[in-house]
Each structure stands twice: as C-alpha cells, then as structure tokens.
Design a protein that fits this description.
It comes from Iodobacter fluviatilis. This is HNH endonuclease. The chain has a 3-stranded antiparallel beta sheet. Strands 1-2 form a two-stranded antiparallel sheet. The chain has 2 domains: 1-101, no CATH class; 105-145, no CATH class. It contains 6 helices and 5 strands, in the order E-E-E-E-E-H-H-H-H-H-H. It has 145 residues and is α+β, with helices and mostly antiparallel strands. Bound molecules: zinc ion (ZN). The site of zinc ion has 7 residues, from strand 4.
Amino acid sequence: MLKPLQEWICDCCGNTITSPDEGYVIWQHDNNQRDFDFKIIHKFVCEPPSYPSSVPLNDFLGTKGSTYLLSFISLGKIKARGQYRNYCHVLDFDEFVDLYRRVQIPYYEEARRKFNNPQLLADMEDASEVHPYQEDVLKQIIEKY
Ligand SMILES: [Zn+2]
C-alpha cells in the first residue's frame, strides 16, 4: 500500500517512488506551447530524453503545489489581463486533472491502479462527477476492488 501523497507509481518503470524527493513531473508541449503527456517518474534514472519540461515532484505538493498547478490553467486576477485573459497552456485537461489529483488528493494514486476494474466501472456508472474522487470513496475503492 502506498503512503498517501508520499509515494507514487513511476509512469516509466512501474516501481514505487518512495519519497517526494525521488520524483519528478515531466511533460511535453505542442507547437503552441500547450502542455500534455504529464508523467510522474523517478528523477534521473527514469527520465526520457525527449521531455522538454521536468520539475521536482515536491513543487506539486501541498498548498504551494496547488497554487503552481492552478497557474497552468489561469494566470489569475493579477496577471490575467489583456492578451493573457483566459490564457491556459494545458492541452489535455483529463491528463492534467489526473496529475492534479495524483499530487493533491490522498489515496488517489493507490486507487487509480484499479480504475480499469470492470466491476468498479459498473458500480460507479450512476455516481456523480465528484463522488469517485472523494478521499473516503478512494479508500473504499482500494479495499473493495
Ligand atoms: Zn521509475
């Protein structure tokens, strides 16, 4: 069992990242500098050479991390003016929100390994948009499936 928000599964080698200090978040950009293909990986050992952006996993954690993640999708009241209004450099929102949940919501990373379970998908068919990602529901997913 992974320690919530302290351990992750490396998207490159599939082994456990046992501390935030061991992790990096990497991603790519399209020609318009919009970000996609976010991955959490072991720093140095699992870093593919083709990814232009890599940032320490620690920068995505806690309140500081939440603030950083939000800056990807809005420059906010101070900076979002003129040409920068509605400026967003995320290309794939589903991928981005998956990253957000992996680094901000306890138990998401562990439960995420079960998200292709057919019984889980059937049981969640009528659930609301938010229900499956609540901390207590994620814990139930880990135990039940
Ligand atoms: Zn790795």
